[in-house]
Design brief:
Length: 165
């Protein structure tokens, strides 16, 4: 069997809830956490990344990935021990700088002509649009005219991501 080098990076994959295939070899699943919890209904929730990483300081060379999926923590008001925070993460007090640093790193490792898929940003969508507009000079779905990297914003309804070959 031939080993496949991942071409997709998800640096904040958490429990991989967005994926049909939670072990897709085309994806490098990263997260700052490596933990498991028992949810209120008795089910286990696991966050076991392929590689521990902080999306604000990615350990990869520039232009390394053809697709970057970025679904950072997005809850602002939630109890620190709530199951929502355990599953989705909580924005830190300096959330604007946190997200700015995360976007900067995701775009740095995104290859020219690659795609970035942004998710979980319902509460901060306006801020995300401002970041993208500032980066590209406009908001038309293209992150950078010089690199021609495309961006997809994940809608407000939860959907599952299936990476197409």
């Amino acid at each position: 069997m031939t080993s496949m080098c991942p071409t997709v990076l998800d640096p904040a994959s958490g429990g991989r809830m967005m994926y049909f295939d939670k072990h897709d070899p085309r994806v490098l699943f990263g997260d700052i956490r490596d933990e498991s919890w028992e949810l209120c209904d008795g089910r286990r929730f696991d966050v076991h990344p392929d590689q521990l990483m902080d999306y604000r300081k990615l350990p990869f060379k520039d232009n390394s990935y053809r697709l970057v999926v970025f679904d950072p923590p997005h809850l602002e008001h939630a109890g620190s021990n709530s199951y929502m925070v355990k599953k989705y993460g909580k924005l830190p007090a300096d959330w604007k700088q946190n997200l700015t640093d995360g976007f900067t790193e995701c775009f740095r490792v995104l290859a020219g002509g690659g795609y970035s898929f942004l998710s979980g940003m319902r509460l901060r969508l306006l801020y995300v649009k401002c970041l993208l507009a500032r980066r590209s000079g406009h908001f038309s779905g293209i992150a950078s005219p010089s690199r021609q990297a495309r961006i997809g914003l994940y809608g407000s309804r939860r959907r599952t991501l299936e990476i197409m070959a």
